Amino acid sequence: xxxxxxxxxxxxxxxxxxxxxxxxxxxxxxxxxxxxxxxxxxxxxxxxxxxxxxxxxxxxxxxxxxxxxxxxxxxxxxxxxxxxxxxxxxxxxxxxxxxxxxxxxxxxxxxxxxxxxxxxxxxxxxxxxxxxxxxxxxxxxxxxxxxxxxxxxxxxxxxxxxxxxxxxxxxxxxxxxxxxxxxxxxxxxxxxxxxxxxxxxxxxxxxxxxxxxxxxxxxxxxxxxxxxxxxxxxxxxxxxxxxxxxxxxxxxxxxxxxxxxxxxxxxxxxxxxxxxxxxxxxxxxxxxxxxxxxxxxxxxxxxxxxxxxxxxxxxxxxxxxxxxxxxxxxxxxxxxxxxxxxxxxxxxxxxxxxxxxxxxxxxxxxxxxxxxxxxxxxxx
Length: 380
Prior knowledge:
Elements lengths: L5 H13 L3 E6 L3 H16 L3 E6 L3 H4 L5 H7 L5 E6 L6 H9 L2 E6 L13 E3 L15 H13 L5 H17 L6 H14 L5 H4 L13 H12 L10 H7 L3 H33 L7 E5 L7 H12 L3 E6 L3 E7 L6 H6 L5 E6 L3 E7 L3 H12 L1
Parallel strand pairs: 1-2, 1-3, 3-4, 4-5, 6-7
Antiparallel strand pairs: 7-8, 8-10, 9-10
Helix pairs in contact: 1-6, 2-6, 2-7, 2-11, 6-7, 7-8, 12-13
């Protein structure tokens, strides 16, 4: 069995390449999204395609997924083929807006389906109805790899395949996808060639002294993933994408050194937020953790949610409070589906989605308490 619409997406992209159409890649700013964009970018470039723009939304300012801010910025490139990676499956309104602006939309995503499918030209998501592919746990980079295989066909050389496998392995580990079936192969194959990667950003982890303290490759990769979670955006591109795309070893080493320094401050800020959250939780008998603050950095709340969820074995809804709305992240124990739980309160939300145990949401501040009450009621 094949992944539904994957061949259709490949055919449409090949047509765009042949017709010299403008192509835009729109990816999530985490490591999985960055790797998925990079794989597809390099595959299309190998075919001679015209990638006119890459776009990564700023989650704190724009929220998760396709944003109106992003579409406003990109509309100058219309008409074009807009391919989303690691996002888009919950952007029903935004896809309609994109089409009105003159974009044809292809969605390549791996997140939970929110009851229906956006009205994109092509939707690739193994979790959608009618997809008979036997494995549903692929990262977005895994889907991008499989799409690249179809695009390049006989042009998919061994060296290029190894190159993409390295990125796919890194993203699959970073996104905490199940290490079985396709993912087991991606990780095993990708790790084999990683130490001899031609990519300066990956070579750098064996050159920078900081990584000497970690004796094996798995530990080095875990530490690299942690470092790449630091918020460091330049020219609209996250650190993960810039590091993996950089062509100079010296530049890659300098970039990693800078990110390492930022991780120390990040660790301190996470600890500060944790202390504040736990002070508020003291003596609480509620079945969920629901905490937010206007002073918490958005990029830290995922770590805070993960730590609290593991420590108390409760669903943790942690949010950054903005002027009119709040951006939140969700972590739940393995037996709780956070996306389904939020789905029961979707009328109160602006957007929501993700994976069963790791998800996110946007909510108007006026609805925060109602959202909390709804979650408690439905979880109970």
